[in-house]
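Saturday, quiet lab. Running sequence design on the structure tokens for the scaffold JK sent over.
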């Protein structure tokens, strides 16, 4: 049975903080599901190429919503991450995230998975990471880890969406330069829309 490489572990951490999901099968092994929109097709295939030794087949496109999707084979190596991120079945931020989220590749995958750019020419821009599935305490834990492990200053904001406020990590003036400097070497060209236009030539 294949073992996870160092790079695969870093990718896994990033996508589990984002949109990736680990399932447990009837034999108590675990498998990863990756799915994204047509706009992120290149990203799905990049993920597949990096995890292909665990994958029984290439990504397929759904006919109804046009999403691209693939799943890994069940593998006991993935169960460590399942136990860390889903101890009671619901995704959480592990208490030892400081020891897990340590590499810029993980941060870049997290942003490619579930990050966004708010760019207004001549006036303002910031980055954010969608963390609305995590508690306020977990968001604060992530703030501390990003500051300590990467030197990136963030804060929690809760913008209003359809009458409900959802927390997200906000990366403004104090942290945005360090953030993009950290993740840019790993960003795929298909994510140019997630960085300001003046950064495109540097990607």
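Result came back. Writing it out in full:
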């Amino acid at each position: 049975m294949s073992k996870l490489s160092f790079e695969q572990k870093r990718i896994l951490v990033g996508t589990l903080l984002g949109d990736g999901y680990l399932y447990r099968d009837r034999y108590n092994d675990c498998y990863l599901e990756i799915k994204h929109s047509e706009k992120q097709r290149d990203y799905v295939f990049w993920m597949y190429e990096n995890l292909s030794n665990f994958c029984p087949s290439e990504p397929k496109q759904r006919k109804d919503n046009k999403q691209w999707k693939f799943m890994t084979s069940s593998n006991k190596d993935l169960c460590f991450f399942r136990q860390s991120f889903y101890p009671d079945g619901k995704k959480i931020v592990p208490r030892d995230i400081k020891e897990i989220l340590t590499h810029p590749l993980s941060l870049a995958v997290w942003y490619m998975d579930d990050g966004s750019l708010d760019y207004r020419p001549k006036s303002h821009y910031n980055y954010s990471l969608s963390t609305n599935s995590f508690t306020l305490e977990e968001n604060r834990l992530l703030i501390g880890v990003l500051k300590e492990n990467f030197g990136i200053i963030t804060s929690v904001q809760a913008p209003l969406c359809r009458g409900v406020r959802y927390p997200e990590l906000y990366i403004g003036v104090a942290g945005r330069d360090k953030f993009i400097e950290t993740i840019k070497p790993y960003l795929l060209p298909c994510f140019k829309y997630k960085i300001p236009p003046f950064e495109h030539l540097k990607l």
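Notes for JK: The longest strand covers residues 30-36. Residues 6-92 form a domain with the Endonuclease I-creI fold (CATH 3.10.28.10). Ask whether to fix the surface positions before the next round.
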